[in-house]
Design goal:
Length: 459
């Protein structure tokens, strides 16, 4: 009790943080002169820090996660009730919320069939990589073991997930990496790599070129984000996905869609791939599944993939030889079920489409006003604005200037994001991902803050 009372004194909390917490993503030297940021409370779209300052959160908990907003008592209650009844059992056992959530999820994903639980986006993707490797061993005589990933995409923080990072700055200090991960070009038309009319098809053809170079009999899987997140909010151009699907079919390459960011409503449909009529073999998801109220991730497969792991009575190793300890936590699916109910009952997919359109049109107006805004793009409530020093050459602004825009918005009480030390020389895209509950006023306040910040930083 004494510890808790002591911790209610916010200056003690901040000092404990400064002394002992190793923060994600930032250099600690700055905490010699400024306090580490500690977020104390949240309600709806707003959070309050240890100094009592109120912020409008335009990034859903920093990294596109709190889709249904803060302070949801019904999720807390669902988790509480479940924890009291049965908090955890792992290994080969299932659970009540795990079974029901899997059924509900699959109802939203025609063509998909099986849900494998774990607890982070990285882990969900690693499960795909392990499944692909096991399929290679069992069905292709050890061939088809390579995994293609795309420049500017990101699939997680573990060493194998980083082997598939299309963001060099995230990976550059952590090699050597495992073999068999091969990069294909990105598809951002604003940063053109080919001077052609059908850019989407051309960018997809580049994947075919890599498959042919590597040898189709060596390539087992292609993993892609439906809309690239931390790599700069890249909405694939028209024609891209149709061609990608054809190529995968032609060369018998399994298609894995990383919905860790786009999944569960972010783009205005349940899953980003559903905007494009894609038929994936694997879908991974994490952040929005339970909006950060519990740690949960899912690797969802088709029945055909599941069938490839069918028991062979002569081989006791003929199953997916994997476990995730905390894949047995029932808090995850209990929170996920209530999260899904909220999205349905509050019509949050429709709201996402409407608010996304408003936000995009506000950003377009900023582009008309500020020549530093070179490109704006987005799908649903997942948006980006790329800042350039020169519109003709598209030379990116210095990353310090992009960060100054973020800091200015923060001073105005609005938290926005920016591509963060991930792409050398290209950390110049402001990122927005407000909760799916955003109102027109919230959206206008966010873009007004950016407007003011651009004026102050660039004149
Ligand atoms: N995939 C994508 C597209 C992501 O953006 C992230 C995290 N930012 C991950 C995977 C990894 O998720 P986690 O941090 O939960 O491991």
């Amino acid at each position: 009790m004494e510890g808790m009372n002591q911790m209610n004194d916010m200056s003690a909390v901040v000092e404990a943080d400064r002394a002992h917490v190793w923060h994600h993503l930032i250099q600690h030297k700055q905490f010699e002169t400024i306090d580490p940021r500690v977020i104390v409370e949240g309600k709806g779209m707003k959070v309050w820090d240890a100094k009592g300052k109120e912020h409008l959160d335009a990034v859903s908990g920093g990294v596109w996660t709190v889709n249904v907003g803060y302070g949801r008592e019904s999720i807390a209650n669902a988790v509480r009730d479940q924890l009291i009844k049965m908090n955890y059992f792992a290994g080969a056992a299932g659970s009540v919320p795990g079974s029901i959530f899997a059924k509900r999820l699959i109802e939203k994903m025609p063509g998909m069939s099986r849900v494998y639980y774990s607890n982070s986006g990285s882990e969900a993707n690693e499960k795909v990589y392990k499944m692909v490797r096991q399929i290679a061993h069992r069905h292709h005589g050890g061939k088809k073991w390579k995994i293609l990933y795309r420049d500017r995409d990101y699939h997680g923080t573990t060493i194998a997930a980083l082997a598939s990072a299309g963001q060099d700055q995230r990976a550059m200090q952590y090699g050597p990496f495992p073999d068999g991960f091969v990069r294909v070009p990105h598809c951002l038309e604003y940063r053109k790599q080919w001077d052609v009319e059908n850019y989407g098809e051309r960018a997809a053809d580049a994947i075919e070129e890599v498959i042919l170079r590597e040898g189709p009999d060596t390539v087992g899987c292609l993993i892609l984000e439906p809309v690239t997140a931390g790599g700069g909010v890249i909405v694939p151009p028209k024609g891209y996905w149709e061609r990608v699907q054809e190529i995968c079919k032609k060369y018998n390459v399994l298609l894995a869609i990383d919905e860790v960011v786009c999944g569960v409503g972010r783009t205005g449909v349940w899953f980003g791939y559903q905007n494009y009529g894609i038929k994936p073999d694997f879908v991974t998801m994490a952040k929005g599944v339970a909006s950060g109220y519990a740690a949960i991730s899912c690797t969802v497969t088709t029945e055909a993939v599941f069938e490839m792991f069918k028991d062979d009575p002569t081989d006791p190793m003929s199953y997916f030889r994997d476990i995730s300890t905390f894949g047995g936590c029932t808090s995850g699916p209990a929170a996920a079920l209530e999260n899904m109910r909220i999205i349905e009952d509050e019509g949050l997919l429709d709201n996402t489409v409407k608010m996304g359109e408003r936000c995009l049109s506000n950003l377009q107006a900023l582009m008309d006003k500020h020549k530093v805004v070179g490109d704006v793009r987005g799908k649903g409530l997942f948006l980006g604005a790329e800042l350039v020093a020169d519109r003709a050459t598209k030379e990116p602004v210095d990353e310090k200037q992009a960060q100054a825009v973020v800091a200015d918005c923060m001073a105005q009480g609005v938290i926005i994001g920016v591509t963060n030390r991930s792409l050398p020389g290209l950390n110049n895209t402001l990122c927005l991902s407000p909760a799916l509950i955003a109102t027109p006023d919230d959206i206008d306040r966010i873009t007004d803050a950016i407007d003011g910040a651009l004026t102050r930083v660039f004149g």
